[in-house]
Amino acid sequence: MKSGLKIVLAINLAILALLAFVYPHLMVGPGKLIPGHRAIDTDCFACHAPFTGASSERCTTCHKPADIGRLTTKGLPVTKPLTAVPFHQKLVRQDCVACHSDHAGVKRFRQTGRFDHALLQAEARKECQGCHKAPADPLHRQIGGNCSQCHSQERWTPATFDHDKYFVLDRDHNAKCVTCHVGNDYSRYTCYGCHEHTPEKIRREHIEEGIRDFKDCVECHRSSNEHEGRGGGERTGESRGHGRDDD
């Protein structure tokens, strides 16, 4: 009796396995494909290999990497590009399934998770606005530089830059970014963007205090207090202990 039951179970399993290979879209398919893939809706092996799943090599037989974002699979221009500029050509490797799925049951035609910017070539990682729309808040409207000056590519928030660690934007110094960062270059700054600060005036006032090292303003002045000394205290040039004119 037990032997007969095992034979029946074995036959049923064999039939199910056979049906899974003959009609995989009915037996194991997680959902319908996108409209563009309707022609292969019942041809699972157009994208999947037995026991190994979908592969990028099969994707690129229809989606030529050089044409992605530019031309459709029929050679027609893409009328509604997903991003401002095609970027698939700038990937270090063509690994389609690392980002994309298709079936309605598993995030159809969307990234399967957070995009890994390490997949992009080094130069492409600097072209943030090719894929991302620039923020419209008052601060970001003043900035036209590379996003990586303040943000990491692992996550947008929190920003990696804390301005107060370098200079406190209070009182008269709550100015536009370009006042101190000329040409949207946020790796540099100047204190001579204000009419009160001229090279000659700054030089004269510091020499009068016996201070000769005054090229790096924020080294001693991290807020709008003109008498602020090194480290944020009310320290004069004499108490700094260096850069004095001893003559």
Descriptive report:
- By secondary structure, the chain is an all-alpha fold.
- It folds into two domains: 98 residues, no CATH class; 114 residues, no CATH class.
- Helices cover 21% and strands 2% of the residues.
- The chain has seven helices and two strands, in the order H-H-E-E-H-H-H-H-H.
- A two-stranded antiparallel sheet has the order 1-2.
- The longest helix is centred in the N-terminal third of the chain and has 21 residues.
- The termini are far apart.
- The C terminus is likely disordered.
Gap between N and C termini, in Å? Answer: 113 Å
Low-confidence stretches: 230-247
| Sheet of most strands | 2 strands, antiparallel
Count of discrete domains? 2
Helix content: 10-25%
Radius of gyration: 31 Å
> How many distinct beta strands?
2
Query: Count of DSSP helices?
Result: 7
- The proportion of residues in beta strands is under 5%
What global shape is seen? elongated
Cross-sheet strand order for the largest sheet: 1-2
> What is the arithmetic mean of pLDDT?
75
Helix-strand pattern: HHEEHHHHH
* Structural category: mainly alpha
Quaternary organisation: single chain
Q: Could you give a quick summary of the protein structure above?
A:
The chain is mostly helical. The protein has 2 domains: 31-128, no CATH class; 134-247, no CATH class. It has 7 helices and 2 strands; from the N terminus they run H-H-E-E-H-H-H-H-H.
